[in-house]
Amino acid sequence: MLRVSKLTKQIDHRQIIEDVSFDWQPGEIVGLVGRNGVGKTTLFRTMTRQYLADAGQVLIDQHDLGAEPAAQRQLFFIDTQYNFLGNYRLRDLPDFYALVYTQFDRDRYTQLLTRFKLNGQDQYRRLSKGMRALVNLILALTSNATYIILDEPFDGLDVIVRENIASMVIDEVADQTKGFLISSHDLNELDGLSDRVLLLKDNRLAHDYNLEDVRAKAKKMQLVFKDKEIPQVLKTHSKLIRVSGRVLVVVFPDYTPELDDQLRALNPVLLEELPLTLEDLFRANLSQDTGYQLLK
Ligand SMILES: Nc1ncnc2c1ncn2[C@@H]1O[C@H](COP(=O)(O)OP(=O)(O)OP(=O)(O)O)[C@@H](O)[C@H]1O
């Protein structure tokens, strides 16, 4: 198990991440979401010791990465903003990675390059964005690290490359020997991929969602009432996602049978359940207020 414990990082006297703690197991695909600039990349850089933490630890099977750098072999991250890969040819990259990841699988690396029609002679910096994303993932998989961090791996990719990456990730976790931590600000990309989503907000880990539990409890509803006044039960128990005329689309984080009775007792003109997406949960949790004042 990888444990992030009370990790804290300031940059230029500004708190970027504060007291972040979570556990991550092989076999899990954990999503990390949060608005632009909230500190997702900073969290990854601090976890991998590119930035030194001001407080807190990262432990892999109880080995502190700060005290035992060799444990870092089990954690993989390519910083997409700052890395040394640009000037090198793809065929040369394993030489560098094998220095750290002594378990690096060179044969599989070559096979995967061939499978995705990537030319070992090409320089990394000459690759398209989608090709780079594929190479990053191939390096991650062939490093044979147990814990793999992917920072916005789908950003700007076409649907085919995206599907290739998603299906490789899913295949890789099937035997429970590897885990992924994937950041994204586009929640549609994580839908169907992650079992669990961490939400970063105001420098902190605001939620650790088990999506199965969340989906079992939350409901998204489309409602229309005769009266223009919004019923109090909605204001108290739901977050407004969208309004179009009299049609309200809301998310109830905890939809109980009692709530259902209360809503039906109001005789809505329309009460219909809609499929709940990760994006709905994200919006419901990140909007500063419920937005009901929009209707006034
Ligand atoms: N090296 C640095 N020097 C100064 N400020 C930094 C540095 N690294 C990060 N920051 C600041 O920390 C904050 C968090 O940045 P970070 O890149 O971690 O966010 P993010 O959640 O990954 O954003 P995005 O989704 O836009 O990639 C930002 O305000 C950023 O300007």
In terms of topology, how is this protein built?
Layout: E1 2-11, E2 14-24, E3 29-33, H1 40-47, E4 55-60, E5 63-64, E6 75-77, H2 93-100, H3 106-115, H4 129-142, E7 147-151, H5 159-173, E8 179-184, H6 187-190, E9 196-201, E10 204-210, H7 211-217, E11 219-224, H8 232-237, E12 239-244, E13 247-252, H9 257-265, E14 270-274, H10 278-286
Parallel strand pairs: 3-8, 3-9, 6-7, 7-8
Antiparallel strand pairs: 1-2, 1-4, 4-5, 9-10, 11-13, 11-14, 12-13
Bound molecules: adenosine-5'-triphosphate.
Summarize this entry quickly.
The chain is α/β, with parallel strands linked by helices and 296 residues long.
Bound compounds? adenosine-5'-triphosphate
Strand/helix succession = EEEHEEEHHHEHEHEEHEHEEHEH
Q: Helical amount among residues, as a percent range? A: 25-40%
Treating each run of at least 4 consecutive H or I residues as one helix, how many helices? 10
- Unreliable residue runs: none
GO molecular function, one term: ATP binding
Domain ABC transporter: 2-227
Keywords: ATP-binding, Nucleotide-binding
Organism: Levilactobacillus zymae
